[in-house]
Design brief:
The structure holds 2 protein chains of 2 kinds. Chain A contains 40 helices and 3 strands. By secondary structure, chain A is mainly alpha-helical. The longest helix of chain A is centred in the middle third of the chain and has 33 residues, at about 260-295. Chain A is flat and about 145 Å long. Residues about 800-805 of chain A have low confidence and may be disordered. Chain B is about 45% helix and about 0% strand. The chains are: A mainly alpha, B mainly alpha. The interface between A and B is large, with 80 and 45 residues.
Chain lengths: ~800, ~90
């Protein structure tokens, strides 16, 4: 009994000791926590606060949950602050680490309550921002950031309201500073509405301070409140008008104040009055200039400035007084003449050329075109041609001289020529009697002493110009460029003159393209082609193409371009490019034009011939030639060229042992295919057949099956010329059989009918079978006809003497 | 190439006979070389070449004499100070 009691006592003591252990107590607290009995949990945890690492954190968590459950913000704050106080009780670092997560939650709770209680007060918000900045945010960084953004958003609104009040009290510099703070906070919280409004208000404040603004920099004002915008743009317009900036004010009013209002109407009236005043001033100045012009007190430079100012004056006057603007416009031609005359008289030909080129449709005036010609001549004779300007000058000169009307105009200015008549019969500007109206003293009659050739005058002018080109251009490279360009322009123009019978200006290609006249020429040439099927018209039009692709001239150019590209590919020995160009569509373009389709073969033939003359042992050229044959509809010459090239190549390469007999046979098959009735090709092909069969017989080739493949093809494609020249093969067969017989071999075994083998009872081994096959092919591919040609006999003799290792021709 | 009319010192309408005389005078003056004078005379005596020389005289383009421009516009006084800057005040 005593023992039992002692055991019970020991058990009770043991149980009590167990219950008092920190871990046991923490488990008990956890059980309370799980059962949401946070008060009991706190009591237990308080007992082991310093004894269990997790106790402080769990203690704080219980306090946090209890605090969050409280209603009043003040009670919550008290609870959260108590949690913060717990940090002082914690001694060990591992407990601190666990505690900090709960502490951050308490701090966040405090910051949130303080934000809610701030009532948008700027100071309180700023203070709470500092609190957030200093707080431990462990695990709650995103929540704190979000709360901070809310502060800035609220601050941007609060600052804006504050600034409005300051602005209302007319303290604009102070207001601007506060608006800037609002902008700063808006940018941190993406509050764009407040930001745009603040930007607009700053501009308004600046205008109220009579300071300028830059609307290009502040494009955000256009996203601000509409009322702010109206206020701002109106104030800005007033500011601009007060400062004499009428043009900008007009832009602002027409763009941003486009509504009806008496105040806006007043602005418009001011602008109208200002424009009228400016117009009046301009007219006064123009009248002064006119007087100076007739006093001859204006320098050429001043006349130029006056002339160049007229367009913008006319443009501004149009909105004030249309009639007045037309009066100003009407003085331009006279002023132009005066300026041009001055430039020519002081030999400023470059300025004169520029002036003429800017005059609308100057080429329609024979006088202006003539003066352009004179200026181009003068400019060149002064040695002023450069790489930049020679095209303008030369095309201008040629267009002027080739224009009959320009020359005819010269006749009007003199009286010495009254006793003469002038003939356009040899004119270089016309090929037909096409001028609808000619002066009384001009005709198309034969040239005589009294009927002067206008063509001779034109040629004289050209000759004089060519002389100065040669004389005045010192730079060798430029001289080449200029002469080349001159010749091309002249040649192109002459082609057009020779074709067209219409009474229009014939410009050079460069002149036409520069002045937008090229399509007119192309259209006339298209019409000529349609009417007369004259492809020369299309040829003449090619240099006049700029970017339009709708004309027949362009189609002709395109077809020619295909040939050019093929020729370039031949030059580059690029068969792939030719293959790509060999399309049905491209062939269609070429077939459309006789000039091109009938000359394709010659063109390609010549390019290939040039290439062959550079290198006659280029195997890559064979593929190029094959593609050319495939491309050209007319190709007999190309085939002949190809076959001979292949034959020559094979002969030289086989003889020099650069290629084997099979390779030569393969290449020669192509030549035979394209020229089956060419005796030279057939003979060389047959010799190669023999070489290849001998190679099989003597086991000198591994391409037996490939050789037989070609020979099988030959069997089905023997031309008459082939047959006539194939005795070489039958003779070879005879020779082989003769040698076998001399060696005592039963040649009946090699008979095609196999009768010999049956009679003799013998059969052929593999070598014998190989020989039999070769002999059979020699029979099939060779002619059995005896030839009476002494040369053939001689060849047979050479074969028998083994002198025929080389190809014969 | 120099202008043959200038070399011979004659007007554009000079008659053939006068060209011969002008040639003699030019040779006396010795302002230009004998070759230049001969070429100039030859050019003016050949109608086709003379026409080429005439080409180098600028064409006179008919143009009206510019008249003083009359205008009905009168100067208007502009008083921008009368404008009400606060007409569209947005923070009233």
């Amino acid at each position: 009994m005593e023992v039992v009691i002692i055991l019970i006592i020991i058990g009770i003591i043991g149980y009590l000791i167990y219950q008092s252990l920190p871990n046991t107590k923490f488990e008990k607290a956890q059980a309370y926590f799980n059962a949401k009995n946070y008060v009991e949990a706190i009591n237990v945890l308080n007992g082991i606060f310093d004894k269990h690492n997790d106790a402080p954190a769990k203690f704080a968590e219980c306090k946090l949950i209890l605090g969050q459950g409280l209603k009043a913000n003040s009670e919550k704050l008290k609870a959260f602050n108590e949690i913060l106080e717990l940090r002082k009780r914690i001694n060990n670092t591992s407990s601190i680490a666990n505690f900090e997560n709960i502490e951050a939650k308490a701090l966040y709770g405090i910051a949130k309550i303080q934000y809610e209680d701030s009532n948008a007060d700027i100071d309180k918000l700023n203070q709470n921002l500092k609190f957030i900045d200093n707080a431990n945010k462990k695990g709650l960084e995103t929540d704190f950031n979000s709360l901070r953004t809310k502060h800035y958003y609220q601050l941007s609104e609060s600052y804006f309201k504050k600034a409005i009040e300051i602005e209302k009290s007319n303290k604009y510099p102070d207001a601007i500073q506060v608006y800037k703070k609002s902008i700063e906070c808006s940018e941190k919280s993406s509050n764009s509405t407040t930001k745009y409004n603040a930007v607009a208000r700053i501009s308004i404040c600046r205008l109220k301070l009579n300071k300028s603004i830059d609307l290009q920099e502040n494009s955000e004002v256009q996203k601000s409140d509409k009322e702010y915008q109206k206020d701002l743009f109106y104030r800005y317009s007033v500011y601009l008008l007060k400062n004499g900036n009428f043009q900008q004010a007009e832009n602002i009013i027409s763009t941003h104040l486009n509504f009806n209002s008496t105040d806006i109407e007043k602005l418009r009236d001011i602008l109208k009055a200002e424009k009228a005043n400016i117009a009046l001033k301009q007219i006064t100045q123009i009248n002064q200039k006119i007087e100076q012009l007739y006093d001859n007190s204006l320098s050429t430079e001043e006349i130029s400035t006056f002339y160049n100012s007229l367009d913008s004056i006319v443009s501004s006057l149009k909105t004030v007084d249309l009639e007045l603007s037309e009066k100003v416009l009407a003085i331009k031609p006279t002023l132009f003449n005066r300026l041009l005359t001055n430039y020519i008289s002081i030999e400023q030909y470059g300025n004169a050329i520029n002036l003429i080129y800017k005059y609308p449709k100057f080429w329609e005036s024979p006088e202006l075109l003539k003066n352009l010609g004179i200026c181009c001549y003068g400019y060149t004779s002064k040695g002023l041609l450069t790489e930049k300007n020679y095209k303008i000058v030369i095309s201008g000169w040629l267009t002027a001289v080739y224009s009959d009307n320009v020359i005819l105009k010269s006749l009007e200015d003199t009286s010495w020529d009254d006793n003469y008549t002038f003939s356009l019969a040899e004119s270089i500007g016309t090929n037909y009697s096409q001028h609808e109206e000619v002066p009384e003293n001009v005709n198309y009659d034969d040239i005589s002493e009294s009927n002067i050739s206008i063509g001779a005058t034109q040629r004289e002018l050209l000759q004089q110009f060519e002389t100065i080109i040669h004389k005045e251009i010192k730079d060798h490279q430029l001289s080449i460029q200029v002469n080349d360009f001159y010749d091309k322009e002249k040649e192109s123009l002459e082609k057009v003159v020779n074709v067209l019978a219409t009474d229009i200006l014939f410009p050079t290609p460069h002149f036409a393209i520069s002045n937008g006249l090229n399509n007119e020429i192309i259209k006339a040439l298209d019409n000529d082609y349609v009417e007369y099927s004259n492809e020369e018209a299309l040829e003449a039009g090619v240099p006049y193409i700029k970017n339009s692709t709708s004309s027949i001239v362009y189609q002709y150019f395109f077809a020619n371009d295909i040939i050019d590209r093929i020729n370039s590919a031949i030059e580059a020995v690029n068969s792939a490019t030719i293959k790509k160009l060999n399309t049905k569509e491209n062939k269609g373009w070429i077939e459309k034009f006789d000039n091109i389709s009938t000359t394709v073969e010659d063109s390609l033939f010549n390019t290939i011939a040039n290439k062959i003359s550079e290198d006659d042992e280029n195997e890559a050229l064979i593929a190029v030639m094959e593609e050319c044959i495939a491309f050209s509809s007319y190709n007999e010459k190309l085939k002949h060229q190809y076959s001979n090239y292949v034959a020559n190549y094979c002969i030289s390469q086989v003889n020099e042992e650069n290629i084997d007999n099979f390779k030569a046979l393969s290449l020669m098959k192509g030549a035979y295919l394209r020229s089956p009735n060419n005796p030279r090709i057939c003979k060389n092909f047959i010799t190669l057949i023999r070489f290849n069969l001998m190679d099989i017989l003597n086991e000198r080739t591994r391409k037996e099956s490939d050789i037989y493949k070609i020979l099988d093809w030959v069997k089905g494609n023997m031309s008459q010329t082939y047959k006539q020249n194939s005795s070489e093969l039958s003779n070879a067969r005879k020779e082989i059989l003769g040698q076998l017989r001399a060696n005592g071999v039963d040649i009946s075994l090699f008979e095609d009918n196999n009768l010999g083998s049956i009679l003799s009872g013998h059969s052929l081994n593999s070598q014998g079978l190989k020989m039999k096959k070769v002999l059979t092919y020699l029979t099939d591919l060779g002619s059995i006809q005896e030839t009476s040609n002494p040369l053939d006999r001689l060849r047979q003799l050479r074969q028998q003497l083994n002198l025929d290792d080389d190809l014969p021709f | 190439m120099k202008n043959p009319y200038i070399i011979l010192g004659v007007s554009q309408d000079v008659e053939r006979a006068e060209i011969m005389k002008a040639q003699m005078l030019a040779m006396k003056d010795k302002k230009y070389s004998l070759q230049e004078i001969q070429i100039a005379a030859k050019q003016l005596l050949d109608p086709a070449k003379r026409l080429a020389a005439d080409f180098m005289f600028p064409a006179k383009i008919k143009a009206r004499r510019i008249q003083i421009i009359q205008s009905n516009l009168v100067y208007q006084d502009i008083n921008v100070n009368e404008l009400n800057e606060n007409a569209f005040d947005s923070i009233k």
